[in-house]
Amino acid sequence: MLKLKFSLKYVALIMVAIAFLSCSKEEDIDITSIEEPVNLQFNLEKIKVKPPINKINKSGYSGFVYDKKTWEKLEGVTIEFKEVGRYPSRNVKMYTVMSNEYGHFNIELKPGRYKMSAAKTGYDTYVTNQGFYIVRIGEMSRLNIFLTQEVNVPVAEKIEIVSGNNQSGTINTTLSDLVVVRVLDQLGNPFANHYVNIISHDGSYLTNSAITDANGLVSISWTLGDTVGEQGLSAFSYKAGSSTIPLIGSILNITATATP
Predict the structure, then answer these.
(1) Where are the domains of the chain?
(2) pLDDT (tens digit, 9 = 90+) per residue, 224-233?
(3) I want to staple 224 with a disulfide (CB 3.0 to 4.6 A). Which of 16, 114, 196, 203 is the partner?
């Protein structure tokens, strides 16, 4: 009985060994059936990275320019925004726009503080004297501007010859006719009480300057010099409060022919 049990034990071990060997037997593999592995490496040079989209709205001002009295929309108004820096040494920038045929303007500005001015011929210039216009990020603010028409205060604008040019006379004698010049304002009306400077290139005259009368006139008595031939006299004037900006027409060159 003991011998039979021992034999069955060995038979069982042999069967387990046979089963193990059959499972570990190598199988033939068809390498042509293996799919090519996917290459997961990326060529970074070919990847185009798009820049981030700036979703911030534009900043600045938009609006209309009006005549303050009539509410007429004004075309051709020059609107200027001057950046106000926080430090005096900072270089400030200027931004300019002009109102269109409908009186509308639109200007993009960087965030910051600004002084504003608006100018058009025939109107008083509007200037920000106190405070600032503040531009914030992403805000296009509404701004309407009202201009006041200029009061037409007369100012000296033009000088012209009235009479006495191209005369003839004997040397060292006073011409028979006065040399007359006239000063006019911006509307073409005579302008009184304005200085006119006189320079003689030959001969003499009574004064170096004269003041226009109620008719805007200055009359000059010209005495010729001792040179035979053409002699000259000049008259000129400047705008009020200036010694450099001449009136339209300056300098007037007046001539006379001197005979023996």
Answers:
(1) 60-147, 156-259
(2) 999 999 999 9
(3) 203
